[in-house]
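Input (structure):
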C-alpha cells in the first residue's frame, strides 16, 4: 500500500465511534498498542501523510484492526512482562500486517534475533530511536529490496510459484493462492524440515511480498512419541558433537522440540536443528541456544569492519552502526542524503549472509 502525502484542505471528519471496526475509516491507520502520550513522538505520520494514529488497550486490538490498518506498533511499557507472548500472538493472528516493537530496555542479541525470526518488522529502541519509526513503516510497505522486479499479475505469480514447487521437489499437491503479491500455501508437508525448505524456495521468487503458510500443515506418515523424539535428538548430540554434548540439551512436548544450552559454533547448532526438523512428526523446532563469547566477538568484528568500509565507500555517511542477529542485520546512524540510506542497505544485503536488513538510518 503506497502512502500519499497529505493535502492540507478542510479538517478531516472523525470516524463514527459507534460503528464497529476500522473498516469505517476512510484513510489508512496505524494501530498503536500503547498510551496516547506516545502521540507527541509519533505525530510525523499525521503531519506528513494521510494516516490516522489509533491508540488501543491490548485486549481491544481485534476490535479495531481492519483492512485500512497498515501497521501495528506494540509498546513494551504497556504490556511489561507479557509483551513477548502478546507480540507473538499478534504476529500469528495478523500475518499480513507489519508489526513493530518499541523496546524500553536493552536485551541480549539472541532476543532480538528471535523476534525478527518470528516476523517482527522492526525493534525500535524507544524513545532514543523514535525518529526512525516512520521510515521503517514506510519501508515495510515497499517490495523487498532483493527483488529485481514485480510479477505482472497474481495469476502469473501463482503459476511461477507452482512451477518452483514442482521443480524443487515435486510438491504438486500444495495449493497456491496469491492476493496482491501475498502468497498463501495450503496442504501437507512431511516434516518441519520439508516445510522450511518449501518456504525458502517460494520466498526467493521475485514478486512475492510475503509468504503465509498457516495452512501448510505437517503430517508425517510415521509419528514418533515425544519420548522417542527426545531420545534420538539427545543421542545425536552425544555421539556427533562430542565436546558440545554437555552444553546442549533437548526437550520435546506435543511434538515441539526446544534445543537449549550454549555453543561456540553456530554451524554445530544448525546441524542439531536440521536433524530435529527431519524427524517424522516434529511440528516445530525452537532454537534457544546461547552463542558463547567467541561467536559474538566474531560477529562484532565483522560488523566493525563493514562500518569502516561503509564510511570509505559512501561520502554521505556521518555515523554508522551495524549489528548482526543471526539471519538479520540492523543498521543505524546518520547519512546526508536519502540515496545514501538506500545504497547502504543494498550494499549490506550483498555482502552479508542475511535474509533482511532493518534500516534505522536517519537523514540529516
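Output (sequence):
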Amino acid at each position: 500500500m503506497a502512502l500519499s502525502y497529505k493535502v492540507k484542505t478542510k479538517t478531516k471528519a472523525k470516524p463514527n465511534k459507534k460503528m464497529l471496526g476500522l473498516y469505517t475509516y476512510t484513510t489508512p491507520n496505524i494501530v498503536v498498542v500503547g498510551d496516547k502520550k506516545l502521540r507527541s513522538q509519533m505525530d510525523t505520520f499525521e503531519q506528513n501523510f494521510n494516516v490516522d494514529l489509533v491508540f488501543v488497550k491490548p485486549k481491544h486490538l481485534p476490535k479495531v484492526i481492519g483492512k485500512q490498518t497498515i501497521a501495528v506498533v506494540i509498546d513494551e511499557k504497556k504490556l511489561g512482562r507479557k509483551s513477548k507472548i502478546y507480540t507473538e500472538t499478534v504476529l500469528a493472528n495478523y500475518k499480513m500486517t507489519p508489526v513493530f516493537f518499541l523496546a524500553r530496555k536493552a536485551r541480549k542479541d539472541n532476543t532480538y534475533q528471535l523476534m525478527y525470526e518470528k516476523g517482527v518488522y522492526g525493534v525500535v529502541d524507544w524513545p532514543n530511536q523514535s525518529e526512525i519509526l516512520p521510515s521503517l513503516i514506510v519501508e515495510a510497505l515497499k517490495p523487498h529490496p532483493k527483488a529485481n522486479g514485480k510479477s505482472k499479475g497474481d495469476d502469473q505469480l501463482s503459476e511461477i510459484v507452482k512451477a518452483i514447487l514442482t521443480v524443487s521437489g515435486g510438491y504438486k499437491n500444495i495449493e497456491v493462492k496469491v492476493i496482491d503479491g501475498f502468497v498463501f500455501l495450503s496442504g501437507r508437508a512431511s516434516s518441519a524440515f520439508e516445510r522450511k525448505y518449501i518456504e525458502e524456495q517460494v520466498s526467493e521468487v521475485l514478486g512475492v511480498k510475503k509468504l503465509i503458510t498457516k495452512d501448510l500443515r505437517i503430517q508425517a506418515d510415521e509419528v514418533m512419541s515425544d519420548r522417542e523424539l527426545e531420545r534420538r535428538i539427545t543421542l545425536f548430540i552425544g555421539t556427533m558433537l562430542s565436546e558440545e554434548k554437555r552444553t546442549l540439551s533437548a526437550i520435546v512436548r506435543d511434538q515441539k522440540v526446544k534445543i537449549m544450552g550454549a555453543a561456540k559454533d553456530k554451524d554445530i547448532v544448525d546441524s542439531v536443528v536440521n536433524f530435529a526438523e527431519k524427524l517424522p512428526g516434529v511440528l516445530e523446532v525452537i532454537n534457544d541456544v546461547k552463542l558463547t563469547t567467541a561467536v559474538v566477538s566474531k560477529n562484532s568484528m565483522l560488523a566493525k569492519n563493514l562500518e569502516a568500509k561503509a564510511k570509505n565507500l559512501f561520502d554521505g555517511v556521518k555515523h554508522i552502526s551495524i549489528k548482526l542477529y543471526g539471519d538479520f542485520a540492523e543498521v543505524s546512524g546518520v547519512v546526508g542524503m536519502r540515496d545514501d540510506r538506500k545504497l547502504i542497505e543494498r550494499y549490506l544485503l550483498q555482502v552479508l549472509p542475511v535474509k533482511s536488513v532493518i534500516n534505522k538510518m536517519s537523514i540529516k
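Notes: Residues 4-25, 143-151 have pLDDT under 50 and may be disordered. The chain has four domains: 22-140, 154-218, 226-291, 294-363.
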